[in-house]
From TrEMBL, chains A, B:
Name this protein carries in UniProt: Succinyl-diaminopimelate desuccinylase
Enzyme class: hydrolase
GO molecular function, one term: metal ion binding
Peptidase M20 dimerisation domain segment(s): 155-256
EC number: 3.5.1.18
Organism domain of life: Bacteria
Species, as recorded: Acidimicrobium ferrooxidans (strain DSM 10331 / JCM 15462 / NBRC 103882 / ICP)
UniProt record, GO biological process: L-arginine biosynthetic process; lysine biosynthetic process via diaminopimelate
Pfam families: M20_dimer, Peptidase_M20
Annotated InterPro entries: Bact_exopeptidase_dim_dom (IPR036264), Peptidase_M20 (IPR002933), Peptidase_M20_dimer (IPR011650), Peptidase_M20A (IPR050072), Succinyl-DAP_deSuclase_DapE (IPR010174)
PANTHER family tied to this protein: ACETYLORNITHINE DEACETYLASE, N-ACETYL-L-CITRULLINE DEACETYLASE
Keywords: Hydrolase, Metal-binding
Length: 344, 344
């Protein structure tokens, strides 16, 4: 098999902060083209296939971009260091290495830009919209860092802002107003009381998170404030769809809302459940099986009709940190596990 | 007596937003000079005396500046409208009119800039620092709008920011962090439980206000926040000095503070008590007597050794609003009451 570590080292040398992925896209495309795959570039995504459109294909998917913040690249026989080592140039290198090693099954590599920015710039979303047939396949692996664990599905996200209102007054005559900030305690208590569900779905247990991630209020030192805004993030397990999760949050805060208050839902994106039936042989090569508690593009793959899981090298706790590093052995282990599964 | 309404109408025609008071200062100085007073300008303050330094003088004090926001000037036989009509060109005009009417007692007029901005730009504070002897006197009236009531003293102010800390984490792994915003409810409850004192001091009752006037926290939608800041305004009755008021707030919040938290006191300025003995004859000319619940420059006069009260035309509720207007009859009533008191 082509060495994924060598490819990962090469990719680390090419900065690819979100919005500036073209150079890395070219290099990835060259590697795939040189190995004889058909390469197309659609909406900045590099799509490479060793088949002419086989609906039984396996999709190997990863993003090209990294968060900002250059880090020195350092490669030795044990570890790879540098921006994107974890998230996710090592995973991308594994996908390319597998496809370049003449697998005897139909494989499609998708390397896309814009994952670390807002969803409007997400290359995979554009690819789904423009050329959905390129994503036809029987199963997909998103090679985001999972530390070599098989991480199933992903949780959905509701992002909402609760606006509680009051009535302005001068603080020296505070009783003439209603302090909106004084209402925060009750709202926080209600959110704290909302159950964090932990449903078991197949072999894994999801774990919801409901967090107040922002609070803003205040006019001036001498003014009783008439508005406070509370940002709530609800990561919900994928047994709920986005509409039901949104409704759950709305019902929870309704008792603390008065006339004039509102809950603005900025985003409600569904999670996904992985159909483990397609990935049984991968399970034995993984360090374990667990639920993906964050949101990943597995949700887009599943929504596009492709059963998918998260499986890649690198400790997700190191993603976006200045300590990004991945072990050489783990990169090779993940590549071997995927190779065996592809040909099982 | 010189007509204060005519002077007020003239002052309304000269915009004097904080920082841009020179034109109005010139006009006020000309009026006082033309009436034969000795006029000096110190740190932007116009100081005019009909005496050579009499420690029994009465100080008539008002600020030149207004908040921003020009308003059309309209004057008829009933009301004066325009920016500063209430706060406090009518009061300033009363002071100038009294001094220009050949009072038979020693009078000092102080017209100062920078009252509506931060205390660092307050002209009266600069005058106290540079030429305290100009403020020598037996009694002072600050002609801020009181609606013709005699308002005694003023409350002090503590402005403080409580910082509560937590530990950052990704929201999908919220249990690895500590959400600082979740601590806001307890802090608000503690502040709500703190007694708002209503001490009787002489003939009036003060009424404290403790208000959370600002709250800020949040890093990003996917981050459990590690810091929240809570701005607290404590308007305290003048039976406490600033140090004791500050201590009272510190003791109240200490039970909710952990290691790493802090309470930063941005400002702790004392209030003042008016010695009513010097103002008995003014009481009969006022619509009533009550405590001043806001902070005013009466505190600076009292701190400079001059017993002082608030007494001026205009409804303080209209100050800083676009509805600023003052009744002609009230302006004349206040001027007459002061004239009789000066000569009692």
């Amino acid at each position: 098999m082509r060495d994924p570590v060598e490819l990962a080292a090469a990719y680390l040398e090419v900065p690819s902060v979100t919005g500036d992925e073209a150079a890395l896209a070219r290099l990835v495309g060259e590697h795939l083209d040189a190995a004889g795959l058909r390469v197309e570039v659609v909406a900045g995504c590099v799509v490479a296939r060793n088949h002419g459109g086989d609906s039984s294909a396996t999709l190997l998917v990863g993003h090209l971009d990294t968060v900002p913040g250059e880090l020195p690249v350092a490669v030795d026989e044990l570890v790879l260091r540098g921006r994107g080592a974890v998230d996710m140039k090592a995973g991308l290198a594994v996908a390319v290495a597998l496809a370049c090693s003449e697998p005897s099954v139909p494989v499609t590599v998708v390397a896309y830009p814009g994952e670390e920015g807002p969803i409007t710039g997400n290359g995979l979303a554009h690819l789904v919209a423009e050329r959905p047939e390129l994503l036809a396949g029987a199963r997909g692996v998103l090679l985001e860092p999972t530390g070599g664990f098989l991480e199933l599905g992903c949780q959905g996200v509701v992002r909402a802002t609760l606006r509680l209102r009051g009535r302005r007054a001068h603080v020296a005559r505070a009783w003439m107003g209603r302090n909106a900030i004084d209402r925060v305690g009750e709202a926080l208590g209600t959110l704290r009381a909302l159950e964090r569900r932990e449903p078991q779905i197949g072999p894994v247990r999801y774990r919801e998170a409901i967090e107040v991630v922002g609070v803003r209020g205040g006019v001036a030192w001498n003014v009783v404030p008439d508005l406070v805004e509370i940002d709530v993030s609800y990561r919900f397990a994928p047994d709920l769809d986005a509409a039901r999760a949104r409704q759950r949050l709305e019902e929870a805060v309704r008792p603390v809302m008065d006339d004039g208050d509102d809950l603005e839902v900025a985003e409600a994106v569904p999670g996904a459940v992985s159909d483990l039936g397609r990935f049984g042989a991968l399970r034995s090569g993984a360090f374990g099986v667990r639920a993906k508690l964050g949101w990943t593009d597995v949700a887009q793959l599943v929504a596009a009709g492709v059963p998918a899981v998260n499986f890649g090298p690198g400790d997700p706790e190191l993603a976006h940190t200045d300590q990004e590093m991945v072990e050489v052995a783990e990169v090779r282990h993940v590549a071997q596990a995927l190779w065996r599964w592809l040909h099982a």
